[in-house]
Amino acid sequence: MKRQLILEDGTFFVGEAFGSTEQTVGEVVFNTGMTGYQEILSDPSYCGQIVTMTYPLIGNYGINRDDFESIEPSIHGLIVKEMCDVPSNWRSERTLDAYFKEKNIPGLAGIDTRKLTRIIRQYGTLKGMICDMDVDVTEAVAYLRKTELPHDQVKRVSTKSAYPSPGRGHRVVLIDFGMKHGILRELNKRNCDVIVLPYNATAQEVLRLHPDGVMLSNGPGDPKDVPEAIEMIQGIVGRVPLFGICLGHQLFALACGADTEKMKFGHRGSNHPVKHIATGKVAITSQNHGYTVTIESLRNTRLEMTHVALNDGTIEGLRHLDFPAFTVQYHPEASPGPEDANDLFDEFMAMIEQFKKEGEVVHA
Amino acid sequence: MPKRQDIETILVIGSGPIVIGQAAEFDYAGTQACLALKEEGYKVILVNSNPATIMTDTEIADKVYMEPLTLEFVSRIIRKERPDAILPTLGGQTGLNLAVELAKAGVLDECGVEILGTKLEAIEQAEDRELFRALMNELGEPVPESEIIHSLEEAVSFVEKIGYPVIVRPAFTLGGTGGGICTNEEELVEIVSSGLKMSPVHQCLLEKSIAGYKEIEYEVMRDSKDNAIVVCNMENIDPVGIHTGDSIVVAPSQTLSDREYQLLRNASLRIIRALGIEGGCNVQLALDPHSFHYYVIEVNPRVSRSSALASKATGYPIAKLAAKIAVGLTLDEMINPVTGKTYACFEPALDYVVTKIPRFPFDKFESANRHLGTQMKATGEVMAVGRTLEESLLKAVRSLETNLYHLDIKGDVTDEVIEKRIRKAGDERLFYIAEALRRGVSIEQIHEWSKIDRFFLTKIDRIVQYEAVVREHVGDIDVLRKAKQLGFSDVAIARCWNMSERDVYAMRKQAGIVPVYKMVDTCAAEFESETPYYYSTYEEENESVVTPRESVVVLGSGPIRIGQGIEFDYATVHSVWAIKEAGYEAIIINNNPETVSTDFSISDKLYFEPLTIEDVMHVIDLEQPIGVIVQFGGQTAINLAAELAARGVRILGTSLEDLDRAENRDKFERTLAQLGIPQPKGKTAFSVQEAVCIAEEIGYPVLVRPSYVLGGRAMEIVYKEEELLHYMEHAVQVNPQHPVLIDRYLIGKEIEVDAISDGEDVFIPGIMEHIERAGVHSGDSIAVYPPQTLTEDIKQKIVEYTVKLARGLRIVGLLNIQFVMYKNEVYVLEVNPRSSRTVPFLSKITDVPMANIATKVILGATLNELGYSTGLQPESEGVYVKAPVFSFAKLRNVDISLGPEMKSTGEVIGKDQTFEKALYKGLVASGIHIRPHGAVLLTVADKDKEEAVELARRFYEIGYQLLATNGTAETLRAANIPVTVVNKIHSESPNILDIIRQGKAQVVINTLTKGKQPESDGFRIRREAVENGIPCLTSLDTAKAMLFVIESMTFSTTAMSEKKVYV
């Protein structure tokens, strides 16, 4: 069935529908990863967004049981050049189309995704709508221009209630702003005794669990839409070792007095080089963010930039100068993407141990 | 990290002649590397024996040595030049091996030369089987289990450990004879027992069989700061078991989930880090299609064919950056030259599908074994880019220039044959698969036969299924659009619709179904790029902006194949440079990923496209160039000229009509007659009877060939009527549509000339004399410059004829003429109105930039304006020899005897002050070991016996022992030459084959009895020699040349200056 994608700048594309035939609106972004569509479409950070994959053949290895990054996908739509209807991989259980139908997510195939990507590159991310052919483009554009993007994505994707993922190691409280399973997986791998809390947990609630460390997860949207989290972070910085990823990184920066801003089209893909300033070494990282902490705003804070994006010089990592806390803008848990930065979780463990040791010294 | 200041001079080793497995990719890599090092301010010294390369141009390096790539010669260069460092990782296996040799011989230590890029230890770790296994075990990287066994018991206990299937490889048998795959104990007992018997040392290697695994490659780079990245990963459509050079490969991988991708990425990066490589590296892995289990198959600690492919597939210039890394720069401080904005330390994102298909020489070598396995057989490859896999695949198919425009097979085949061809991979498997699908065989069935992933089979099936749709919807515009998106060629559609290809083209244009061009930018459009590197696809947005500058399109030469090698790429590149110098925008269309011409930094615009009329016209329709240059792209480009002209495109240089006058036999004959230039007598026969009459009339021996080109069936020299009848019966089908050409075969000296003409003036940079008499293809002959035996009169005659021909044929640009001198008269054999194989050789030794001048003449300059005038340029000092190089060891069942059909894959140069020294270098560089003493084994045909006597005597006089088969021995004895008789093939041991196998002869001289019968004794003798690495000379002229060199070595002090007559 033919359907269309209409953008707020008036451009429209006609393609072949897959998945559900709902009408959907969202911020249209592109991801340059050549593999990992299953992780991407189930990454809660894409809540409210319509993602276009720049790699033209999507769905080749189907959808499997294991590679989801959340239980329920919150992506608003997926746009591809070609959707594979006969996937081939030993783990594949069904097609992308079947999965999207089941989850009631619309998809659009057969459009010039490179043209779309170039529009986003020039214009910045923009609002778009996947709809039936009878929708009038002018009306749709007017509607899109009027429509404000949502502010409650974190609330939508965060867990409603706390739950444990027990282990025998360090106790880590993981704040779920739209957490990818990969983060939990990395903590579990390190035998952590994880307790996942919803995004609006207070500092008291966190500290009451006597964590050895707190992990701030990734999540969708503008960090300024989650003031309660900023407040919580302010209440725990310095009292417990802290590690933040992506939205968690931005919230931490805001909590420490820095500022964030929206980027033109963000970083989304599996090939982003990030330089560790202290050693000069570069890691290829998985990224998915549309906001960034501004460099100027660090001036009056006790934050130090530890990592920088090689290509555009934006902040990729921060550390607190006084307290055991560090955060990164990218995804050390990968899934999808390179695992070059995986050792950050080990650093977090080391920080927890160090903090414990120092604590013992103080008490002794 | 800043670049190193402690080194100034760097020696770069090239890869030498083109052979199967080592082709133009190293010219591309080496050229990039030399330029990159110069750019950084280093003094670059280059050594390479291959004159047909861009890298050996004097502008590419500060000093260029065209010397044999042997320890002997390279040591001399090192001692003389005293470089601070040596960069061996850009010269293929040759460069790497040479570096190891130099290090082991102590030359590097002695001269204080450091190895850059990959350290000696790493080279050894990657190359040595045991060291490699040890390293992999240390890293915890799995390698297929294997063990050397000496008995059946050992074999059984190995299999008990690792399970079936296992591969058995008997030690020291050629080409794996006696080996095989065992899937049960019965087979194990049988194959191991026979394998042990066949192995001279009674041992076999048993290896776990991973046939059927997915074969995945990663191209990785690392710098001195330990930053490591993946430039590209690639998936072989053919599963493990076929050499990756012979496999159809797609990039990026298609059937790997992110977890699998990262699993193999991690392994590849661990390996490059463990080896400590500073530069590029290729890791080949095998992935179980049913689990996460994988094996590391092989690591190449250097740039390779795959890295050239990865560079073209992504735009990321691996060799250039590898060279800079070698001198200390790091990835994070170098700009990605494609975007010009981002850094080189990232991993390219593709937003298209790349397909590589190898080009095989089986059209030339009909008798060759076409099965594909672990020994590479392809001579070249093509690459195509598309936005769907189907488009990419079909574009690659029509880029091959095998006269296929779709997934078709030639001729009728039975279902049984199809199954056989799919089960056992050969070069045409892709086409058999399509045919099987067409006949209703299921994807599942084909998967079972071939183990090719269902994903790819489904794509092929989609193409096949759509053929039926096209056929059922004649003239349907929507179907047409969809077919184009699936990559269908106009030719294929035209056939379905019973229309002409041009009608389909016109219909499409009218309906607005034309391709757009998208950029290869390394970053999937994330960053703005200015790289003018494009491919076509049927989508919405066109990114190729036509500039207001006047442009010229140059057609490249497509894949490297026998007869059309790197020489044509050399000329293409020079033409592009000349166009730019002349102030035009230079646009190139080509599809060979190995070459310099497809480096996007060479031209103003690069279109990576098939060289078919449809694809070329699309570019021309968009760009509206002032014209097209077809002279430099070999026969590929010339063949397109007529169709281009018919569509109103201006062919620059020699006009189509004049091209035709040179190529069309009748018109050519008339022209020669008008000009009063003699040619060997010849006539066209339309029936067998006629052929016999004509041969009778002009006299034997005659040269026969079909007038039409039909893959591989070509010329032969026949000496008597029964041979002619045999030829007419077996080699060709003569009828009024397909006549046969019969020419008098003049047994004389062959002479070759390249010239540039502007229509008035005709400038001849030089004359080359061939060592082998006419009848051996000019590409397979040893050519000498300046001529050593021609009189001034003959040279004058050649100049006169050349000038007359160039003017008479109204050549504007290049021409190549082959002459034969017979009884002191010069005859014209053929005229090629285009750049030839000898243009780079001659350009280099005469210092005349022929392709450059020709291009400027083509663009309207006169030779006079460019400072050249009619006539022969005074001869350069020194003597230069061009010697052919063959790849016979890699092609089983191919007869190595030289004849009118070209067989060589590459060439080398030998240059020195005297002829014998130059010849020595040429032969050594071509891989022939010249020994001052030893034994020569002679078996010659009756017609050659007389000549052989003189040759034998000279061998005897310098102390060579003579061995001969009965017939030849009798002749020698009769001439009082002592000779040892050797038993014929079928007689008892030790017979002639044993002598060869046991290395008891250092040279074999064998001349062809008659015809090409692979069963003949001569054939077996020649193959045995090739497979044992013993020079086998099939032309007495080559033998004489070699003898001449040995003689000059043997009588060194006096004989060196004494020039001997060698004919």
Descriptive notes:
The complex is a heterodimer of chains A (364) and B (1063). Chain A is built from 10 helices and 19 strands. Chain A has helices at 37-41, 96-102, 113-123, 137-146, 153-157, 181-189, 203-208, 227-236, 247-255, 344-363; strands spanning 2-7, 12-19, 24-31, 49-53, 57-58, 77-79, 82-83, 106-109, 126-132, 163-165, 171-176, 193-198, 213-216, 242-245, 260-276, 282-293, 303-309, 315-320, 325-328. In chain A, the strands form 3 sheets. Chain A has a 10-stranded mixed β-sheet with strand order 10-12-11-13-14-19-18-17-15-16, with helices on both faces. In chain A, a hairpin with a 5-residue loop joins strand 17 (303-309) and strand 18 (315-320). Chain A is globular. Chain B is of the alpha/beta class and 1063 residues long. Chain B folds into 8 domains: 9-116, Rossmann fold; 145-208, Dna Ligase, domain 1; 214-348, ATP-grasp fold, B domain (D-amino Acid Aminotransferase, Chain A, domain 1), CATH 3.30.470.20; 357-513, Orthogonal Bundle (Carbamoyl Phosphate Synthetase, Chain A, domain 4), CATH 1.10.1030.10; 539-652, 3-Layer(aba) Sandwich (Rossmann fold), CATH 3.40.50.20; 681-738, ATP-grasp fold, A domain (Dna Ligase, domain 1, 2-Layer Sandwich), CATH 3.30.1490; 749-876, 2-Layer Sandwich (D-amino Acid Aminotransferase, Chain A, domain 1), CATH 3.30.470.20; 906-1055, 3-Layer(aba) Sandwich (Rossmann fold). In chain B, strands 27, 28, 29, 30, 31, 32, 33 and 34 form an 8-stranded mixed β-sheet that branches. In chain B, strand 30 (812-822) and strand 31 (825-832) form a beta hairpin. The termini of chain B are far apart. Chains A and B meet through helix 3 and strand 15 of A and helix 9 and helix 16 of B. Chain B: This is Carbamoyl phosphate synthase large chain.
